[in-house]
Specification:
With 321 residues, this protein is an alpha/beta fold. The chain contains 13 helices and 8 strands. It is 46% helix and 10% strand. The protein has an 8-stranded parallel sheet. Helix 2 packs parallel to helix 3.
Length: 321
C-alpha cells in the first residue's frame, strides 16, 4: 500500500523547500506580450525544476511513501486564452524538463496524479462549462503525456468529480470528447454534496472510480466497509491496476479523538464536516482507512506529507506490535 500526499511537499519546519510558483491573471494581463512570455516561461521552468527536486526527495523515502499529487499550477495560467498561444510557442523548450521528471518518477516507482479544480465539471448542463472543463482536463493531460504517461490505462491518474446537473449521461458524452490519452488517465470520485458513490459507479465501464471515504461519510453518515460489494466494483474498474482511494477526516475539535463519529450526535452542519484536518488524529478512523487492503491511499490532509508520514509510522507500529 502506497500513501500519497497532495501538491505541497513540506520539510520538518513546515516550509516548502521546492514550491510551485504562480501568478495572477490580472498581473499577467497587465504586461506586454514579451513580458508575458518571460514571466510564464520563468515560472514554468522553476516549477518543473522544483518538481524534479521533489521527486529526488521522494526517491529517498521508503517505497510506500513514493506517491504524490502534482499541483495544477505546474504551468501557470496555461488555460487562460491569452496565455495558451504563448505557451505553445515555447512549450517544446520545456520538453526535456518534463521528460526528465517522468523518467525519474518511473525509475523510482513514484506514483503520480493530478486533480483538476472544482470548476472542471464534465457533467454540467451548460455547454460552455463543459468546454472549459475539457480544456482543463486536456491541459493536465498535456503535462502528463509530456512526462511520458498516457500510454496505458491508468499509468497516471487525472481525477475529477462527476458532479453536475447532466449526471452520468452528461459525463459520458463529455468523456467521449476527450483525447485517448485523457480517457486512459481520467478517474472520477464521489463528492459529499451531489454525487454519491452509487452515482459514480456508473462510470466504471468508462474509467477508473476513486472512492472518497470521507465524502461518503459526510453525505451518507456511513463508514463504508472494505467488504462492501461496491468496493469490488471499484477495483474491477481499475482493470488490474492498483486502485486508489482518498482519505481525509474532519478537522480537529469537530469530531472525537477516537471512535467512529455519528453525525446525529455531533450537532455540526455538513459544511463544517467537509473541511480537512491538519493531521490524522483519530486512531479508529486510521485503522479503518488502512483496512482497505489492495488500495493505495491519497492522503488529503492539510499538513501534507508530514501528516502522511505520521500515518505511515502509525501503520508500521501497528504491524510490529
Amino acid at each position: 500500500m502506497k500513501l500519497g500526499f497532495a501538491c505541497k511537499f513540506l520539510d520538518s519546519e513546515f516550509r516548502q523547500p521546492f514550491p510551485f510558483k504562480a501568478t495572477t491573471r490580472t498581473r499577467f494581463l497587465s504586461l506586454n506580450n514579451e513580458e508575458r512570455v518571460k514571466l510564464i516561461y520563468a515560472l514554468s521552468t522553476a516549477n518543473l525544476n522544483n518538481l524534479y527536486q521533489t521527486f529526488i526527495a521522494l526517491s529517498r523515502l521508503p517505497p510506500a511513501l513514493r506517491m504524490m499529487r502534482i499541483g495544477s499550477d505546474l504551468l501557470p495560467l496555461y488555460t487562460v486564452p491569452e496565455a495558451m498561444p504563448l505557451y505553445k510557442a515555447f512549450l517544446a523548450e520545456l520538453h526535456p524538463l518534463f521528460a526528465e521528471c517522468g523518467e525519474f518518477a518511473r525509475a523510482n516507482a513514484i506514483r503520480l496524479s493530478f486533480h483538476p479544480g472544482q470548476y472542471s465539471v464534465l457533467a454540467s448542463d451548460n455547454p460552455a462549462v463543459v468546454d472549459r472543463a475539457i480544456i482543463d482536463v486536456e491541459y493536465h493531460t498535456t503535462c502528463a503525456t509530456l512526462m511520458g504517461y498516457g500510454k496505458s490505462f491508468q499509468d497516471f491518474k487525472i481525477n475529477i468529480h462527476m458532479n453536475g446537473k447532466a449526471g452520468f449521461a452528461g459525463f459520458k458524452k463529455a468523456f467521449g470528447m476527450l483525447s485517448p490519452e485523457a480517457r486512459r488517465m481520467l478517474t472520477v470520485e464521489n463528492d459529499e454534496i451531489s454525487c454519491s458513490l452509487d452515482d459514480v459507479l456508473q462510470a466504471g465501464t468508462l474509467c477508473a472510480v476513486v472512492p472518497d471515504i470521507h465524502h461518503h461519510w459526510v453525505k451518507e453518515n456511513e463508514f463504508i466497509r472494505p467488504d462492501d460489494p461496491r468496493l469490488q466494483q471499484i477495483k474491477d474498474s481499475w482493470r488490474g491496476v492498483t486502485p486508489v482511494l482518498h482519505y481525509s477526516i474532519s478537522q480537529e475539535g469537530i469530531i472525537p479523538d477516537a471512535g467512529f463519529p455519528d453525525q446525529t450526535m455531533l450537532g455540526v452542519p455538513k459544511s463544517k464536516l467537509r473541511a480537512h484536518s491538519d493531521f490524522y488524529f483519530n486512531p479508529t478512523l486510521n485503522d479503518w482507512a488502512l483496512s482497505f487492503t489492495g488500495f493505495d491511499i491519497m492522503c488529503e490532509v492539510k499538513m501534507k506529507n508530514l501528516a502522511r508520514d505520521a500515518l505511515y509510522r502509525y501503520a508500521m507500529s501497528n504491524q510490529s506490535a
